[in-house]
User: What shape does this take?
Amino acid sequence: MVELVSSVEQLAANVRSYNKSAAKFANLMPYNRAWYALRTKKGWLLGPSKFVGYNITPEQYLGSAYSSEKHGRVVREREETLDGRVTEGVLQRWSILVEEGHPDYHDLHTALNELCGRYGKKPNSLARISIIKIETEQEADLGDDDLVALLAAVFRRLTPAQKSVFRRQVA
Assistant: This one.
């Protein structure tokens, strides 16, 4: 039986594993709709929910038959079905869906286009990306500088009256 991930650490490890073997998955990339992004010091690493949501090896994933008739599910012969809808339910507890207007939206979609483009593929036009919420020293780059940048961005959107109130409260 294929196990679902049970921690954010397993999820992050699976994203790294996907990226190490990405060339093997090139033909499946256009079929993936739900992607999970891991922020690293070198940039974004991305992996599709059907791979990163299960504790499977690249060989197990590739050994499964892809079936577009089954709405994009990867089907294991006579055994189990790898279903992105199942993984989505688990992965949402450790991630945030990035919608248009989010500060990282364009960077993430650019990263996905670059990942697929390396192998001559295009992402699914319905692709959506969620950022993995991980707080470890190795992965979390959201430090003081990012917090200051966020506060500055919020401050710029305030009305003049709100800016005045804010200045009084932080002084």
Remarks:
- The helical segments are 8-20, 49-52, 58-63, 84-91, 105-117, 144-157, 160-170.
- Residues 31 and 53 are 16 Å apart (CA to CA).
- DSSP finds seven helices and seven strands in the chain.
- The two ends are 59 Å apart (CA to CA).
